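Appendix C reproduces, verbatim, an entry submitted by the partner laboratory led by Prof. M.T., so that reviewers can inspect both the input and the predicted structure.
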Amino acid sequence: MTTARAESAIVYGVIPPRFGSPPLQAVAGRLPYLAELGVNAVWLSPIAACPPGDFGYAVVDELAIRPDYGDEDDLRTLVAEAHAAGIRVLLDLVPNHTSHRHPFFLDAERGPESAHYDWYDRDPAGTPTHYFDWTHLPNLNYENPEVRGYVDRVFSHWVSEFDVDGYRVDACWGVQRRRPGYWPEWSRALRALKPDLILIAEASARDEYWYESGYDLAYDWTDELGHWAWEDVFGDTAGVAGRLDRALAADPRPGRVLRFLNNNDTGARFITRHGPVVNRAAAALLMTLPGTPCIYTGDEVGAEFEPYGPPGVVDWSSDPHGLHEWYRDLCRLRSSRASLRAPHMVRAAAEPGEGCYAYVRHGGHGGEQLLVVVNFGDAEAEVCVTLDQGFESLAGASSLSDVLNGGDVPGCAAGIPVAAGSARVLAEPMRAGR
């Protein structure tokens, strides 16, 4: 079962140098801003030592903080201040591989006489293996118990020494391929150390293995490695409903999906590819569907940098499309409404169906029911909604209260006005204040 902490999480993906310098201190200084936005967990991109200029996945010392980010006191201060603000801190750790500049790998290059030679996975010719074009990231050998023991120690270290609250585990699918029994053992041992950790697999949420192995959440990917489930959903606004239906139907456990519009690997930002109108509607979708939403550095102010592109600091004072207030209101609504954090969703028929999408979120029998209506189009729509059996009270209400934007609107059959690139979250008037 996923922990209550994961169910209630609103995650903010942090690229520390995009916050300022020195990065860990800059992130700590922005915690009040993040708390005001309404997030309650931050996922820091890798902070372990790596070669200068690297984003963080070519690790050369898993137990040390990269000096260009700060030191141990900086991290302790960040974690303590985050906890005081009600924000959990998740680290991005890299267990699949090391950098080819790692002391272990440099030693292994001496050949079989090296104590670290067998620390790396090798093909029949003895050449270290790697995935994709990651020739500088040799895979660790999980058949070696010394490797497993070391990786266990790395994960325990950051919990024991810095009181972090969980991990986003990079390329964990690679370890799964080579030794699938590792992750169940790892999660049991780690949760014995701190039971309420949040564990996020960088792997497809469509693979039940991750939940059965002790992870809380997995990525909103298709069955194809690294491919975002929503990748083709928003290209043509008119067909968004059918494509979104197909993507959501593929999730075996919708409440266990880490959902996002951007992350470190999605390239050009969502707003760059689809524009502010669709971005605003998609943000409402992100924050009201089952699963755990992840806002990534600068999403809420429409930042358009690319994570692996030229360095720079986000201009937090610039919000050219007025997104910050929208994200803040969505975060606060999700935190205040239990039905938006529950795993239950029932699709509702919406007319016009082109560019509009509707669904009911509910907390189970007798729980609150909320109707979400999203308009991805560039003009206001009057949306008539037909609800399934079990939602007669919501369907029969002559008017509904918008708990996101405020005010009342006509009932489901009368035509609910929804602005372009916007959404309404609707409750029966007598339940609106709950």
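The two ends are 27 Å apart (CA to CA). Additional entries are available on request from the coordinating office.
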